[in-house]
Amino acid sequence: MIGGVGSSISARPVRIDYDGPLPQGGYFVARSRTIRVLILGRMFLVNNDPNPAAELIKSRTKIYPYVPGGEGTSIAEFLSGDAKLGRITEPPPTVFREGSGVVMNTIPPNDFSFYESLNEVVQQEPATALDPELMGPLAAIGIIKGKPFAPDAPG
After folding, report:
1. pTM greater than 0.85 (yes/no)
2. d(CA 34, CA 66)
3. What does the pLDDT look like over 106-124, one tens digit per residue?
4. Which of 20, 43, 97, 117 is geometrically suited to a Cys-Cys bond with 53, CB 3.0 to 4.6 A?
5. What is the tens place of the pLDDT at every residue in 74-83?
C-alpha cells in the first residue's frame, strides 16, 4: 500500500520497458512488471453521498507524464550537467471517466474463451510479467509466450 489515511505521495509508475530518465527527489518510483499499469483507490461515502468522495479524488489526483528537466529532476543533475532545464509548462488536466451506471461484465468467461483470453494476456505482456510458478501450468496447457495457442483436440 502506498500512502494511507490522509497521506499524500508523489508516485511515478514506470512501465517495464521504460529506460529513460527518472525523477530523483521526493518521488516514489514504482516499476511495473507489465506494460499496462492500473491505479486503484478507495474512498467512502459521506452521508450516503458519493459526490464528496468523487470531488476529493478529482481535486487531489494528478496524473501526467514525467518530463526530464522538470519537476522531479534534482538540482544536482542540473549542476553536474547531467540534465537540462525543462520547459515550465502546466501539466495537462487529468481526465476522469464516469463509470457510475455503466454496465460491464467483470466475470471471466467459464468456457474455452477463458483460455483464449489468458493466452492473449500472456502474448501481450513481457515474459517476465508472470512468475515461473504461474507460467509452468500455463505452458502445460499450451499457453507459451511467443507461440500460437493451439491445444490438442479432445481425444
Report:
1. no
2. 19
3. 899 999 999 999 999 999 9
4. 43
5. 777 778 887 7
